[in-house]
Amino acid sequence: MIRPGLCSVTLRRLDADEVARRAEKAGLQVIEWGADVHVRPGDDWAAERAFEAMARHGLTCDSYGSYFRATPVEAGKFGEIAATAVRLGASRIRVWAGKAGSADVDPDEREQVVAGLREAADVANEHGLEVALEFHGGTLTDTAESTVQLLEEVGRDNLGTYWQPPQDLPDEQALAGLELVLDQVRAVHVFSWWPSNERHPLTFRAELWTRVFALLTKAGRPLDALLEFVPDNDPDLLPGEADSLRKLIEAGA
């Protein structure tokens, strides 16, 4: 029910074929291609190259990791993002909920983000795609409560959310937040940071991730667990981290 995969931003310095080759060698199944380096919106050549690399290495694209933030200046630009996602064979586009945290945003700015997300979800739907929100500080999805509120305000069935452990939040609070958004979670970004953004091997937070995967398994629907970041950005650590990911998924089953 939970497919192990990789965010291409984990291996930013490598080209698309090498990313796919290493993902296959590590026993991963799916890739989220990042729009910052590997496949920029509208770059058909890069999208085709990434698609061909996946075909060579037996992988599929579960998500296109865009940096669309649903701001007014981006109005009308989501079509190009959706078209690129289709070229990748993606089923989902990752987006961001604005540029301000839920406690700092003013009502007008929040409504603008809501409108931008509605437009993005509608365009995605026309392309047969889902949209999922990056669960991240400094945006309207900086807490589980705000994420639930935002999803209700946008009101689109093809809009869900990603999840990842919020920085510096203890395990119990992080898990409580996951339970709150569980019905809307489409995938999780997997890494072990503690404290703040200090990077560790995945097993450093094995107890947290085992409980996360137990909750995701309990949800009873297919989901993706995407490795995002490894210590020191070292590509050679990917096989060990992928093995840890599979074992943690199994431990939570």
From TrEMBL:
Q: Which domain of life is it from?
A: Bacteria
Pfam hit, one: AP_endonuc_2
Xylose isomerase-like TIM barrel domain location is: 21-220
Q: Name one GO molecular function term.
A: isomerase activity
The transmembrane segments are none
- Name the UniProt key words of this record, in alphabetical order: Isomerase
Q: What is this protein called?
A: Sugar phosphate isomerase/epimerase
Organism for this UniProt entry? Amycolatopsis roodepoortensis
